[in-house]
Every structure is written in structure tokens, then in C-alpha cells.
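hey so i finally got around to running the thing on that chain from the lab meeting. sorry it took forever, my laptop kept dying and i had to restart like 3 times. anyway pasting the input first so we r on the same page abt which one it is
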Amino acid sequence: EELDRLFNTDTHYSKIGTANEAGTGIGLLLCKEFIELDGGKIWAESTIGEGSSFKIQLKTSKEESVDA
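ok and heres what got predicted. didnt touch it at all, straight out
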């Protein structure tokens, strides 16, 4: 249920961290915005009791060098 809310720009979602620190709920949204602006993707995978992984996929540059 929480994975669906992590990258949703329509809702504000934040949880208390592992050291009881408060979050603002914008960190992952900023990451998503920058990564997608550059043509990439970000997502999270989670298993209850085991933890979560946050993954990104970035596009590669295929620019050819030009001799001057």
C-alpha cells in the first residue's frame, strides 16, 4: 500500500525514519522529478520483514564525437 504513495505527486506522504527523524515527504518526489526530466525511471521494491530497495534507471548518452 505504501509503495503506491511514495512517488505520487497528488498526495503528501511522509513517515518517521529509523532514527525517529521527521521527514518532509519531498525527497523521493524531487529524485523522481530530476530522474524523469533526464529520461530515466525510479521505483521501489519491498518485502515485508526484509526491507526495501530503491532503484533507478538512467539513459545512456549516445552522442558521437565530432572532429573539429
